[in-house]
Every structure is written in structure tokens, then in C-alpha cells.
Specification:
Shape of chain B: globular
Strand content of chain A: over 45%
Distance between the termini of chain A: 72 Å
Number of helices of chain A: 5
Structural class of chain A: mainly beta
Largest interface: A-B, 91 and 84 residues
Helix content of chain B: 25-40%
Helix content of chain A: 10-25%
Largest sheet of chain B: 3 strands, antiparallel
Structural class of chain B: alpha+beta
Number of strands of chain B: 3
Largest sheet of chain A: 6 strands, mixed
Order of helices and strands of chain B: HHHHEEHHEH
Oligomer: heterodimer
Number of strands of chain A: 33
Amino acid sequence: MKKIILVLIYLIGFSNLAEAIVEVDITRGNLEPLPIAVSPLFTDSNSEKVKVGQKTIENIGEKISKVIEINLKRSGLFNPLNKDSFIQSPDVVHIKPRFEDWRLIKAQALVTGKVVVSGNKIRTEFRLWDVVAAKEMIALAFSTTPENWRRVAHIISDKIYQRLTGEEGYFDTRIIYVSETGLKTQRYKKLAIMDQDGSNLKYLTLGNELVLTPRFSPKNQLVTYLSYFRNLPRVYLLDIETGVQEVVGDFPGMTFAPRFSPDGEKIIMSFAKDGNSDIYTMDLKTRVVEKITDHTSIDTSPSYSPDGKYICFNSDRSGLQQIYVMRSDGSNVKRITFGKGLYGTPVWSPRGDLIAFTRVHKGKFYIGVMRPDGSGERLLTENFYQEAPSWSPNGRVLIFYRETKSDSDGKGFSAKLWSIDLTGYNERLIETETDGSDPSWSSLLSK
Amino acid sequence: MNKEKKQIVKKKQNPEEVTEQARQVSEFEKKELFDPNQIAALIDKSKEDTAETLKKNDKLTQSSVKNSFAKALTLSQEDALKAQIFGCWSLPLGLPYQENLLVRIKLRLKSDGTVIRSEILDHARMNKPGQGFYKVLAESALRAIRICQPLRVPPTGYEKWKDLQLNFDANEMLKG
């Protein structure tokens, strides 16, 4: 009997084996940026010159494609191929790409398009093609006034990014920061705003008052920042679209880093009352101030989780500055960092999955990320002095500022804006007209 | 020592100290107030760095177990096929590394390794909310197959490997 059972088991096993499909695990590949060909957008002879205000822009299609190419390259995820190697002309390729030509130059994706000027509008259409599968992936068209041509380029870049990564882009965004000039011992600080690629720079304040820590609302184009009026800190709200500014309040003692709640209805900040810094919120409609932490230690840098349920902040309640997470009503405070050195400026990712921070250890400053429970700490970049990370709206890139050493007279000092993505490899200087610090990234303008 | 440190740091909070020359943006003290090296050395009794270290996986890989059973491909044949596809697969770099990044594709091959048919086994995942990255990953795997074909398959034993399943797993690369 036993023998029969064994034979049956063997036969069943053998028949399964005969039917088993061969499986091969592919666990390695190229981690190189995706080769993409961005063909110049075709512009017909009637549309070659476009009036933008007092200026005339020639070959706007080529300019739009250049902005797209730079955006994609700076993301670190794409490798735009040299246009000299393109065989098909922009008008023909937009209608019917010869995919074998593009495969020859190793392109895996292809961007084509066309710009037509009609009256006081430009109509821009683009197509994204999968070169290997020989099929169209996305096709869209936008009509707008010629002044918005750079925004059209950013929106197209976002659509390409989203289609090829599965995540929202971050190109149609702005960055607000503190523009700095003068010696280290005598800095003039102005609020400045620019597109994420550094274009369209505007100064929002004159530089006669010290301005600090501008922060965008995650919901709209409102900014909150801190300014010193007669040596006393004041929290302001500024509407970037209308230029209207209002004082939210004068707060006692040293006030730090006001920041919006995820719904944009509150600001959260820390200020010192009776010599002790705690975290407070202020409802922007009712102007009611609520105390969130009540501890003898210094609690600063609060930042909400995107669902508004939690707040991360830094505190020296354990003796050294570390990062803590609590419920938004101030309950259930938990320390999440235990590494050596100091931790500060925690900022919750818009995706909710990570908290970015600055860490100081052995005289070096690091920008890093960790999960909200403190696990998975990764230090992305190390330098003499750097801090204040701010997330891109898709939670993929961090912008921060970095300072250089100066001599005893304050010469040689500089403060520059830098960005780095979550891989820690794609670190880039963001060119600004003056020195810059304390950057904050807006949400997507076109959302 | 803790007391001393705390007093020093509290100075920063004093409004009397606020001047335009001072570093007011920073929430970290700079060298004027203390040397983080010394403070850390003297005071920091906190736990060791908790930065995660990934554990090496010493176990046999899934594929080696599966193939030792199936024996449709020898190890060297499997390695040759893998090496070919490794070179063709461009991983989308923006993938969320904490997600399940496995795409299983079933192929029907010709005897020369040309692909007759390909099927994404977890196709339903493509349309699930929050899984947009999966479509991108699956497309990258399909591109790899197209770029690579004809696949490097053994000259004999067609019936055993004409149906082939490739498991594209980006987790190891992105997390490792």
C-alpha cells in the first residue's frame, strides 16, 4: 500500500513538473536615465515670429522644446539625446515617426510637437511616442497667450514626466526664497520668487526689513513668512497672484518658521512665551491661537503630515535637539531620531511616506530622509553647512541651501540653493541672480 | 553638562539677541555658540545611529530553485538569457522604492527566440488607483523584451522553454 502511495506522489509530482513553466528572475537592469529624443516643435512660416510684450520671439517651437529638454535632463531621470543625431524633420516626425530611425540612435521615447500662432494666441500640441513599441503614449494641445510659452513648456514636461514615471511632475512650479546680498556681517535680505528652473525672477520685498522662512501654502499661491519690524518678529501672509500682503500677528520673543497646515486654513509655528519656545497654531479665519506643545524644552520647526493628523517637530527635551512626531492635537509625542548629533528642520513629504531633515554630526551638516517612525534613515548629502530642506510637490526632490566658509572679514561667503533627489545622486546647483537661502517649493500651478 | 548645553542653546531664543547680523534663519547653532563635535562627544549618550542597513540575502534565489526543478534551461543558459535582458532593461528611475516592484510577463517564443506573444500576468494592477508606477514599470519590461529579441535561448529543448515567464523585479536594485 505504502509503495502505491509513493508511486502516486511521484507521478503527481512528475506531471506538475512537466507542465511547469520556465521562470527566470530579472533582478538587474540599467539605472541610467531614459534616453529620450525631444524633437524641436515644428513652427510654420506664419508662426516663426511671436510678439511677447515688447519683445519678438523667433522660432518659439525650438525654444519650448529646449525648456522641455532642460527640465527632463535636470530631473536626472531622462537623458535627452543630441539633436544633431536626429534624422527626421520636426514637421514629418510629428505626423509619422520612422521609429527605426529613432531606435538607431538608441532613443526609447520621442517627443514631437507643433506650435501655431493664431491671432493673439499660440496653440501648442505635442505627442509622446514609445519608440520601441512604435506607438503613441500621449497627445495633448494647449492654447494660451504667447507670454505663457514657458509655462506651456513646463506643463508639457510634467505630462511627459508623469507618463514615463507614473508620478506627478514638478516643473510647473515656483520657488520662493530669501535673496541675500552683501558681506556675511551685513546681509540684505529680500523675498524673491522664480520658476523652478530659475527663470521669471521677481523680488517681492525691498530689502529694508529682514525677511525669513517664506513657506508656500500647499493649496494655493499664498505665502507666509517672518519679518522683523523694529526688531520684533511679525508673521505675514502674502498673496503671490495679487501682491496683497497682511500681518497675521506680532508674536512675543523669538518666532520661528511659520508653515501652513495641509488644508491651508491654519499656520503652525513656534514662539517663545515667558522665555520658553512651544508650538502653536493660528486659525487664519478666526485668528484664534492654540498651544500645541507645553514643555519646558525648546520645541520648534513644526510640519504637518499631508493628512493633517500628525505633526513632526524638533525639540531638545531629551538633552539634544532631536525630531519628534505627535498627533496634531499635541498628544502622543514620540521621539523618532536616536542617531548621534543633532537633528532639526523636519519636513513631512507631500506623499506622506518620508520626513526630510537636517542632521549635524562631527561638524558636518547632512540633508537626509527617514520614514515617519524614524526607520530607514538615509543621508543624501553632506557639506560644511546646509539646511532647510523643502519638498517638490511630488515628494521626489528636495531643495535646500548651502553656505561656504568665509574669511575673518566675512569675505568669500556665499549661500546658494541646491536640489537633490531621493536617490542622493542627482545633486544640482540652482542658479540665482544673488545668493539665496531658505527656499520653499510651491504646489503645481496647473493643478 | 546637560544643563550647561541647554542654557547655551536657549540664548538663541532670547529676543534681545536678535540682530540683523545674527544667523536668524538657522535653527542650528553655529560655531559662535558651540562646536557640535565637542557637544556631541561630551553629551550625546543617545543610541547608536539607527540608519537602516540592508541585510544580505544568503538564500537561493527563486529562479535557481525553480529552474533546478524545471531543468528546461541549464544554469549557464539561464545566465546567458539574464545577462542579455539585464543589458536591455532601462529601469524607470522615479519608481517609489517602498512599493512592490515585481512585473511578471509570460512569453510564447519561436524556436529562434523571437517573441510571438507577451502577457503581463498582473495586468489588473495597471488600473488600480495609486499604482501608476506599475504601468510604467511593466512598459519598461516590455521594452526590454522588444529590444532584446530574439532572446538567447538554447538550440534544443524548444518544447520545454517555448513558454517562458520573466519576473522583472526592481525591488532589489532600487532598495539595495
